[in-house]
Amino acid sequence: MGRPASQAADAAVCARCALQGPTCCSMEPGREEFCFPLSETEQARVRECLPDSGGFVLQDNSVAFVDGVCRLFPDEDALVRALFPPRKQHLRLAVDGQGACRLLGPAGCLLPREARPYYCRLFPFWVTGGEIMIFDAPGCLVRRESKTIPAALALLGMTRAQVLDLHGRLRLLWGLPPRPGMAAVKRGF
Ligand code: SF4
Q1: How many angstroms is it from 113 CA to the middle of ligand 1?
Q2: Which residues contact 59 (CB under 8 A, 6 or more apart)?
Q3: Is the CB of 14 under 6 A from ligand 1?
Q4: Which residue's CA is the nearest one to ligand 1's atom 5?
Q5: What is the DSSP letter of 86?
Q6: What spacing in Å lies between the alpha carbon of 86 and ligand 1's midpoint?
Q7: Residue 109 Cα, ligand 1 centroid: separation in angstroms?
Q8: Quick check: CB of 164 below 6 Å from ligand 1?
């Protein structure tokens, strides 16, 4: 799940992607446990915009889910496992029977860009070891049309600094400590 199709602030590539089929705002039914976790702060932002959206559900911290989050933060395994202990639950976005996010409307995400979860705003980018990478998502048109990270950033009208900033904010909301050089981020939200 990630970038929606047709908010004015979104890149044209997302609208073109949506014309070709399901976007990153949908997931394969049955794989809901792998949806990214949502912090209380992100949930509150969504509720401010859409008080009755019913856009969230509680999800068990399954072994598969926690292993997946550990892969996102490869050198912080112990910390991630402490944040998502067994037999507890976390919040995630709710999806319909076809796997589409409940916050996805006919013309794209119902939320203004600044109210969307950080993972949505980052996708298809991620940061590992301080370096920006792009998820190997075969359905993502940005992925298919970009041979390099700078090309993908340009296609989405994003900068490297924006990606690093969003990832730093996501880390903090998910409960991970700031990376060196990210102290300013903490004051920013
Ligand atoms: S919150 Fe918006 S951007 Fe994120 S998955 Fe749902 S519809 Fe897409």
Answers
A1: 9
A2: 32, 33, 35, 37, 65, 89, 90, 91, 92
A3: no
A4: 25
A5: T
A6: 27
A7: 5
A8: no
Supply the pLDDT for residue 22: 87
101 CA distance to ligand 1 middle (Å): 6
- Is 122 near ligand 1, meaning CB less than 6 Å away? no
What is the rounded CA–CA span in Å between residue 28 and residue 96?
Answer: 11
**What element of type H or E holds 170?**
helix 160-174
pLDDT at 8 over 80: no
Task: Give the Cα separation of 46 and 40 in Å (integer).
Answer: 10
Report domain extents, the chain. 12-186
Model's pTM, two decimal places?
0.88
- Name residue 142's amino acid: V
- Asked whether residue 139 carries a pLDDT value surpassing 80, the answer given is yes
pLDDT at 167 over 70: yes
Q: Could you tell which of 1, 6, 122 is best to mutate to test the pocket of ligand 1, judged by most ligand atoms within 8 Å of the CB?
A: 1
Q: What is the DSSP string of 97-152?
A: TTSBBTTEETTEESS-GGGS-HHHHHTTEEEETTEEEE---TT-HHHHH-SSHHHH
Max Cα–Cα distance, the chain, nearest Å? 42
CB 95 less than 6 A from any atom of ligand 1: no
Report the DSSP pairing between strands 104-105 and 108-109. Answer: antiparallel
